[in-house]
Amino acid sequence: MFDSLISINDLSTDEIKKLFALAADLKARPQDFRNVLEGRMFGFIFEKPSTRTWVSFQAGIFAMGGGVIYLGPEDIQLGVREEVRDVARVLNRYLAGVVMRTFSHWTITEFRDYFDKPVINGLSDKEHPCQALADYMTLYEKIPAEKDPVLAFVGDGNNVLHSLILVAAKLGAKIRYATPKKYQPDAKIVRTAREIAKKTGAVIEGFFDPARAVAGADAIYTDVWVSMGEEAMRKKKLKDFQGMQVNRELVAKARKNVLIMHCLPAHRGEEITDSVMESKNCIVFDETENRLHIQKAVLLHLFNEGAIQ
């Protein structure tokens, strides 16, 4: 059983399915889990600003009886004021576990190597595992897994896409992605996912043309083109991503009543139009809510003696 969540690869297929079931239980009966984290104090080590990750994790921990200490970039300065390994060994004496939101994935893996308790990746440049789990939980709420929905991702080959590809591979799902040639997902992650897919029956297809990716898709997913830390690249990326916008014309190439997904924040008018964001088939805010429930499920397993065994 997993003892930290750094990557989707930390999870087995069975564990992902059990997390979905536990998250659904937490969503339906939150009052039954009010004291499961009582007496536990968690650290939030965030190098980046946050809305959903911070609020959803903190709300989830408080709802289950735990406490939180927030350590922002000005407070801790990982690797600048102190080495990551030294901070990890200090906080190991104080905290039950940590949630980390960092620029570099290395920072999280280095911290985990010197911290004896659970570490949860709240976002890194390589993966966004909690987001992808919430996304697939939401997709399967709308279209049951046995109907084998096709998810099409259009945009940057980034951390969110990496985690989505790995979840799809583990679940035997169908995922297509369309990215500009210069912004394809990490080749190693794609190879890993395709190796997993050989065992699970997942279908993972990559395109440069978004129309091919969304053709017949049940859900279309996009993310911002310019992520935090890439502001200096903004003008170039907006030019490079021309033709990748999720708009009415692109949506019309998918299945009728195709679901619209986004991890937020959305830059309306760039990667997605306002009319698509406000359409009746947009499930973005359902995804947002399910961040809370899937993260509570992860926490409950990690800190309550293996709740999903």
Features:
single chain, 309 residues, alpha/beta, Rossmann fold, five-stranded parallel β-sheet, four-stranded parallel β-sheet, globular
Characterization of the model:
- With 309 residues, this protein is α/β, with parallel strands linked by helices.
- It folds into two domains: 8-127 and 291-303, Aspartate/ornithine carbamoyltransferase (Rossmann fold), CATH 3.40.50.1370; 129-287, Aspartate/ornithine carbamoyltransferase (Rossmann fold).
- It is built from 13 helices and nine strands.
- It has a five-stranded parallel sheet with strand order 7-6-5-8-9. A four-stranded parallel sheet has the order 2-1-3-4, with helices on both faces.
- Helix 5 (105-113) links the parallel strand 3 and strand 4.
- It is globular and about 55 Å long.
Structure summarized in a few sentences:
This protein is an alpha/beta fold and 309 residues long. Helices cover 42% and strands 14% of the residues.
Q: Spans of 5+ residues with little confidence (pLDDT < 50)?
A: none
Residue fraction in strands: 5-15%
Structural class: alpha/beta
CATH architecture assignment name of the largest domain? 3-Layer(aba) Sandwich
CATH topology of the largest domain: Rossmann fold
Helix-residue proportion: 40-55%
End-to-end separation in angstroms reads: 8 Å
CATH C-level class of the largest domain is Alpha Beta
Q: List SSEs in N-to-C order.
A: HEHEHHEHEHEHEHEHEHHEHH
